[in-house]
Amino acid sequence: MAATLFYLDPLPEPGDTAVLDGKEGRHAATVRRISVGEPLVLSDGRGGVAEVEVTAAAKDRLEAVVLARRTVPAPKPAVTVVQALPKSDRSELAVELATEAGVDAIVPWQSKRCVARWDAKADKGVARWQAVAVAAAKQSRRAYVPQVDTLHRTSDVLDRVRDTTARGGVVAVLHESATTPFAELPLRGADEVILVVGPEGGLGDTEVDALIEAGAVAVSLGPTVLRTSTAAAVALGAIGVLTGRWNDQPLH
C-alpha cells in the first residue's frame, strides 16, 4: 500500500525531524489517524519529496524522521491551461480534473461569453481555485502543485500566447468546429504547451480569430462536444499519451 502524501515546505534534510501541524497536522493526526511507525511521503509541492517515518503523534500534530530526500523532475512539456470561467457549480470541477490530469499551471480567463464574473472577487476566486488545486494534487499524489495565476482578460491571454509561440511553444485552442486534429500538434518537440478552453457558450469568432492571429492553433479533440469543465482534462490525457509526460513512475 502506498504511503500517504502530505505537503510541507520547506522539507527538512535526511536525519532531521519533520513536523506536520496546522491544517496538514490536523488532517494527518485527527482525520487519517496516522500513528507512530507509519511511513509517509512529504512534498514541498515544487518537486521535492521526502520519505519519512512517524516518531510522535498528538492531536493536530505529527513528528517524523526524514529517511531520504529526492527531487522529482518536472514533466515536459510544461502544460498551462487558460480556463474561461465556468459557472459556479463547475468552476472547481474544472480545476480539480485538470490538476488530477497533470496540469502545471492554470490561468483563469474572463472571456467574452463567460456567465461567471469575477470582477469584484478575483482574489477570492483565485484563492479558491488554488485551494482546490492543492487538494486535488494531494489526492492524485503529485510532487508538483499547479499554480493558479491572476485573473486574465483577453488582452492578457493574447500577450501570453504571443510570448509562448515566440519561444517555440505550442498554443492550442480547443474548439468543436476546428478541422485540425489534436494529434497533429507538434507536441513532442515543444517545451511548453498552452491549452485554451472556452466557456459554456463557446468562444466568440472574434476571440478565436484573435488567438489564431497571435499564434495559436484551433484544434478538435474528437467527434464529441466536451464541457468546459472536462475539456482540459481530456486534452491533458492526450498529451500524456502523445509525449513522455506519463513515463515517470508514481510516488511511493
How would you describe this protein?
- It catalyses: uridine(1498) in 16S rRNA + S-adenosyl-L-methionine = N(3)-methyluridine(1498) in 16S rRNA + S-adenosyl-L-homocysteine + H(+).
- It is found in: Cytoplasm.
- Specifically methylates the N3 position of the uracil ring of uridine 1498 (m3U1498) in 16S rRNA. Acts on the fully assembled 30S ribosomal subunit.
- Pfam families: Methyltrans_RNA (PF04452), PUA_4 (PF20260).
- With about 250 residues, the protein is an alpha/beta fold.
- It folds into 2 domains: about 5-70, Hypothetical PUA domain-like, domain 1 (Ribosomal Protein L25, Chain P); about 80-240, SPOUT methyltransferase, trefoil knot domain (Alpha/beta knot).
- It has 6 helices and 12 strands.
- The protein has helices spanning about 20-30, 90-100, 120-140, 155-165, 205-215, 230-240; strands spanning about 5, 15-20, 40-45, 50-60, 60-70, 80-85, 105-110, 145-150, 170-175, 180, 190-195, 215-220.
- The strands form 2 sheets. The protein has a 7-stranded parallel beta sheet, sandwiched between helices.
- The radius of gyration is 20 Å and the shape is elongated.
- The mean pLDDT is about 95.
Give the arrangement of secondary structure elements.
Layout: E1 4-7, E2 17-20, H1 22-31, E3 39-43, E4 48-58, E5 61-71, E6 78-84, H2 88-100, E7 105-109, H3 122-139, E8 147-148, H4 154-166, E9 170-174, E10 180-181, E11 192-197, H5 205-213, E12 217-220, H6 228-242
Parallel strand pairs: 1-3, 6-7, 6-11, 7-8, 9-11, 9-12, 10-12
Antiparallel strand pairs: 2-5, 3-4, 4-5
Helix pairs in contact: 2-3, 2-6
